[in-house]
Amino acid sequence: MTPLTLPTQTTLDARVTAVPGAPVWTYDDYWGTRVSVFDLPEPHDRLLIRATATVQTQPFPGIPASRPRPDWAELRGQAPHGRLLEFLLPTPLTTVTAEIKQAAMKQINGMDPDEAAQAISARVREQVTYLPGATGLHTSAREAWDKGQGVCQDMAQLTVALLRATGLPARYVCGYLHPDARAETGRTAVGQSHAWVEYWAGSWVPLDPASGAEVGERHVVVARGRDYADVPPLKGIYQGPPEAGMHVTVEVTRLA
Amino acid sequence: MSTLERVADVTGGYRLAAARDLVASGVRQWVRALEAFLADVYGEGRAFHDGVLPWRLLFASEQFRREATGVVPPNGVRVHVTSVDLVRGGDGRFQVLRHNASVPSGIGHASEYPSRLLGALRAAAPHGVADPFVVVLGAGEHPGLMGVELVEGRDLSCRQNRVYLRGTRQVDVIYRLVDDDWLDPLHFRPDSVLGCPGLLNAARSGTVTIANAIGNGIADETLVHPYLPALIRYYLGEEPLLDSVEPGRQDAGLRLFAVNDGTNVWVLPGEPSGG
């Protein structure tokens, strides 16, 4: 739940606290995610985890014009042999059937990689209607496609799966989104945990299939991985009766 | 038949002492290469960046435990005990059929094993611990380790990144007979009751040593095995004393164990060395 510091984003101040109080230990994991850890052995009947951060964001600088973009032959020839292979291999949550792959290949026929990525993102928006509750944390890309309903996590994973199937390395991004394009300064808005995508076609380029918006200053990146399972916002083990429920609220305020 | 006699059996015409030295040196070299490989896999990945190993070896393996990246063992040892199976090829050279650097079995039958292994486990304790408290975490058979208690996952608990036995006594070293998947439900299989949530975090924060280290399974992968001689050259700058060979029609000729205490690699039965 701690935003990253990247070329397009600087995290100025971030804290994760737990109530009842517990000391929090942090480390950076394999994906570069800042993980906060705590344990709470005393009996308690509720647990509040609060993550706050002040983040400076910048718009996505665009695809670099200085070097030519690799074509499909270069991408499909080289990516599987380098470090990017990690974002090319399907994972259990980001596997699609041969039929789904075929449909995607047909759709992007004749397009260059960047055009194809945009087309795939748009296609996922058409295929999957946003409907909370229709899917769960463990829903796979293929299930979301078949069901035609899901949330941003499903749309992002499905997009990642399709991009990889065509030969484009892709990663799953999770974070926060300020919901309002006009984003008034000083006004706190109800935001969301959000998931979107980055693909590689010579450089990493972001895509947001769920909102369809251009990825920019309103997006705050928390973590990137192969799929949801690499970057869950919260996980843990607890002892006690079956949980009454978990509630998440996100508030985003534009400061400047 | 004693191990020494079996070495003689495998070595055929070799003078026994020379063969024994060669085999022991070769096994020590093999273990040093495994250590360097694991430190690299869970560190910078130089061998992959330099093209000595293909990235696919890493990313297509379920034994590559990303959770272990950045976990540095206190004395640098990840392979506290390994089993190495040897045969002798038609050309007379000794060959490694397979090794097990994660949870090797059968060590109970090696002579000298309890004191060497216990010495290695104690040497692996976090810095500054005067009298390390070692436990064996297991569910299966275990031949006993000189007064070291055998515990189950539910006997352990973690608080503030420290591991405790029955809630009170802090544990410094865990010799685990349990595979990675079952070791820590917080990071691996959440349905496991054989391990204890928080063990990996405790190891990462340096308050406990897990032996053998989490993530060693990548070194045991069949696809990695043929690369070991090349890795001996790459990491150690030495000519390999042993070849690697694919398990095929050969019977395992001889099983040896190597115990690494950070100063020496002991090849059982007893071969003290300069490491």
Q: Which labels suit this protein?
A:
heterodimer, A: 256 residues, alpha+beta, C8orf32 fold, four-stranded antiparallel β-sheet, 5 helices, 21% helix, globular, B: 275 residues, alpha/beta, five-stranded mixed β-sheet, four-stranded parallel β-sheet, 19% strand
Descriptive notes:
The complex is a heterodimer of chains A (256) and B (275). In chain A, the strands form 5 sheets. Chain A has a 4-stranded antiparallel beta sheet with strand order 10-9-7-11, with helices on one face. A two-stranded antiparallel sheet of chain A has the order 1-4. A two-stranded antiparallel sheet of chain A has the order 2-3. Chain A has a domain of 159 residues: C8orf32 fold, CATH 3.10.620.30. Chain A is of the alpha+beta class and 256 residues long. The model of chain A has no long low-confidence stretch (mean pLDDT 92). In chain B, 26% of the residues lie in helices and 19% in strands. Chain B is built from 7 helices and 12 strands. Chain B starts with a helix and ends in a 7-residue tail after the last strand. Chain B has one domain. Chain B is an alpha/beta fold and 275 residues long. Chain B has a 5-stranded mixed beta sheet with strand order 10-2-1-11-12. The interface between A and B is medium-sized, with 21 and 24 residues.
Strand proportion of chain B, as a percent range, falls in: 15-25%
Through-space gap between termini of chain B: 28 Å
Average of per-residue pLDDT values of chain B: 88
Q: In this structure, how is the largest beta sheet of chain A organized?
A: 4 strands, antiparallel
* Rg from Cα of chain A: 19 Å
Poorly predicted runs of 5 or more residues of chain A:
none
What multimeric state do the chains show? heterodimer
Amino-to-carboxy terminus distance of chain A: 22 Å
The largest β sheet of chain B comes out as: 5 strands, mixed
Helix content of chain B: 25-40%
Helix count, DSSP H or I runs of 4 or more residues of chain B: 7
How many helical stretches of chain A? 5
Q: Sum up the overall morphology of chain B in one term.
A: globular
